[in-house]
User: Fold this.
Amino acid sequence: MSREVDMSVKAAAGERTNAGCLPSAPGELTAEGLYFAYGGTMILENITLSVSEGEFVSLLGASGCGKTTFLRLLAGLEKPTRGAIFWQGRALTSPSLERGIVFQEYSLFPWLTLKDNVALAVGKASPGATKSRVWELADGYLSMVGLDGAGKKYPHELSGGMRQRGAIVRTLALGSRVLLMDEPFGALDPVNRMRLQELLLEIWSATSPRRTVVFVTHDVDEALFLGDRVLIFGSAPGRLIGELSVNFPRPRSASLLFYSEKFRSLKEKISDYYHRDIQNRNDALPMNLTCGEGI
Amino acid sequence: MSAPRQSGSRLARFVKFLAGFTLFALLLLVWIAAAWFLPEKHQYLFPAPWTTARALWNSLPELLVSTYYSFLILIPGYLAATAAGMAGGVIVGSTKWLQTIFIPFARVAAPVPPTVYVPYAIALLPSFRLSAISIVVLAAFWPVFLNAVAGAMAVPERHRDSARVFTFSYLEYLRIVAFPAALPFIFNGMHVGLGLSFIMLTVAELFGASYGLGRFVQYYADFADYPRMVAGIFYTGLVTFLSMTALARVEKKILFWPH
Assistant:
């Protein structure tokens, strides 16, 4: 873990590193000097970042870099070893309806119908509502993601894409202001994946005020297509190695975006970050252990 | 997700169904042959198939009454054990501090063969029925309880996480998440428990019942009426088989999701 990496994180995070000292804006989700260790292994190291309200942030990293752990920390499902996460100006101590989480697969309870899953969330979000009102709201949520006719079906009777739509809308039904998504489209085929990416952006833009989204992925295209900003995670231990602003106009079209010059240059920047990270790590190793010598 | 696989044509399936009877047919043939060739003096201990069939037909009314009395013990005992086992197991499996208390005890208590309780239960409790029911409870409780504990402890992490984000109360967690998630385990325990219940039922009846399936077999053995006794064995086997099948049906209906 060389000094340079830490420097580059600070440089990348820019003024946001200092923002922690100031009273944060309402609705802002902030991690400050976050460390997480599990069984003696450091999983996450010194992560400082903030996500403003209504922002769509992609969190890009290789498998096993700790990005899922980071998401669980944001949800309040784990406690940091050091540092803290602030939500609405207060240190986060436990999970809440405000920060819903969508997993890669099988988020829905398999023993409940799709509609029961959503109604459960609606009931939690508005505890005073009558039964018929809860059903009505659940129907509304289902039609929001084009699952009108599927309410009576059980998760195993739905396709992978439908299940993920159901999982997303269940989180919306919780009334969550922050959506934490852990590679939600990772198990889908490319066509479905693209459709759901567009649907997600559609829903996100349509709701007002906009929800904050932290979207974990290992797919560079996905990260760039969806996010206002891409946070780049390095591995072992997981730490922030870079950050990119992605200011493509919205609504975005995947077919146009992917062939643009700007998109390609952003992709190059991302691979630069990774190359630099690998370089730094190799430099940190003793000479005789350097891999790939003589190639 | 996986539809039941249709293997081959209708004919092929019928042949497969018939093949399931091969061993039954073979054993019956051996039995018939044995009865045919056995000297007459042994036929007293070893009744021929037709003698047994006649005995079965003649004792059918008595067997039905015996079944009724046996079920008066089996059903309340089994249901009480299952209810207590699944409720207790799901609670213990979802509660860390209860695990530290219950699991060491269960490790010692569960493996005790329930047959050893029979004489004492009969001596201790006022009526035979009550002692037999409590023996069945003791036998069926542990497998259901231990499986429910294991099931509640094995709730997938994403469901636990969802439950915490949903801010479920403890009771909501038990009802909406832990219990359904543990159901496949609970049914495993219920199958084992049902088998043990039948064993304990018949053993208990050997000791002191006036009616019942185990009592029927014991009674005619005492009078050396072996055709009736063998008929009783067959009949008890059939009842056990049908009960097991019924439970499997219920399980299939309740556990409709992939698990």
Remarks:
- Chain B has two domains: 1-37, 46-254.
- Chain B has a mean pLDDT of 91.
